[in-house]
Automatic annotation (TrEMBL):
Signal peptide: none annotated. Gene3D superfamilies: 3.30.530.20. Belongs to the AHA1 family. InterPro entries: ASHA1/2-like_C, START-like_dom_sf. Residues 23-159 form the Activator of Hsp90 ATPase homologue 1/2-like C-terminal domain. This is SRPBCC domain-containing protein.
Length: 162
């Protein structure tokens, strides 16, 4: 399992996940830059993602849905703010309805994903910031830590298969 650390900080409204991969930074970057690769890791096991739109550029938008074991669909979106290929990107990540309109009653997180050389591979740091402690607690209660760590755990298999 590549996840090496998970920190929940209700005071600073952040969730930080750190993972180490035995692949170069550029290769890990490609997982997020290529929508077909992203589909293989964005949803946790049993909830595969389908990327509908993918524009990993400042001002770009990415829309997707995950399909559960019973066929239920969960939609979401990214609104990309910054991109520093292959080192980092930032984006707002939110829940959406079936037409990819934001779902206002569910939290939106501001995210910064960074990739740096580390011990011959890549250290990825995923930082999600929420507007309130209640918003962070809501996604924690929804199982975001388990979902995110299991989704990130799929990256090793994807890297090994290419």
């Amino acid at each position: 399992m590549p996840v090496t650390d998970v920190k929940q900080d209700l005071d600073n409204l952040t969730l930080t996940i750190t993972a180490d991969f035995s692949a170069p930074v550029e290769r890990v970057w490609q997982v997020y830059a290529d929508p077909r690769q992203l589909e293989k890791i964005w949803g946790p096991p049993g909830y595969p993602a389908t990327v509908v739109d993918h524009n990993l550029a400042p001002g770009g938008r990415m829309t997707y849905f995950m399909t559960g074991p019973e066929g239920e669909k969960y939609a979401g979106y990214w609104e990309v703010a910054t991109v520093d290929r292959p080192r980092s990107f930032s984006f707002a990540d939110g829940f959406a309805d079936e037409d990819f309109n934001p779902t206002p009653e569910l939290p939106v997180s501001e995210n910064v994903y960074t990739f740096a050389e580390h011990d011959g591979g890549t250290r990825a740091t995923y930082v999600s910031t929420f507007e309130s402690a209640d918003a962070l607690q809501k996604v924690l209660d929804m199982g975001v830590v388990e979902g995110a760590t299991s989704a990130i755990g799929q990256i090793d298999d994807l890297l090994a298969s290419s």
